[in-house]
Write the structure tokens for this entry.
Amino acid sequence: MKLKPRLAAVASLVPSASVVADIGTDHAFLPVYLVQDKACPKVIAVEKSELNSRLAQETVNLFNVNHKVEVRVGDGLLALDEKDGVEIVVIAGLGGKTVCRMLIAAAGRLGSYKRLVLQPMGDAALVRRWLAGHGFRFVREKLVQEKDHYYEVIAAEKGHQAVDEPIFLEIGPMLLKDRDPLLVPWLRHKLEHYEKAMKGLLRSRNGKEDPRWRYFNFQYDRLKGVLEDVCRGE
């Protein structure tokens, strides 16, 4: 199976031959890829609704991987059991707040997993903040682009994560350290986003007195400084 860039980036951070749980699997494309191309012996594909689980099961049946992919209906990580032997948890394509709620709900069992591979659809800084505050370190991070959208993929494992400045939670410490190939265009994209937001607020009644304008301006200045450092090779 050929995956689109976003899911391909997620798959690239899943160690080969691992037992995986894909939370919010949608059509189960990722589980099929993992057992076919990464020699994963077992993948549990979790969906919250019966309807979505049927769609996932159709994909599993189509590719004849029922012996390795189990479609399960349940609420996030709570659908998993210790006897499943899951090593890697993937949560991709869900909002950052939803990802955090799932992690909080299953916080007591997260220590049993070797790696979390997370691809939040927004609020990635919130996810990083939660991970860093609950005993996880970032081991790999990737940026991927599909058309006009950039996505962040985070691989985290148990350990201590030092965060020198809050802005690095928005950027991603490993994206910066490894100089991801998309880092510069992504930073420019984020700066454009803040510029548009600030211009919109300037047209409002409160203008620069709006707390959101001050926050966006602060973030803009910090991101611009990081971009300049990256371009200088620092």
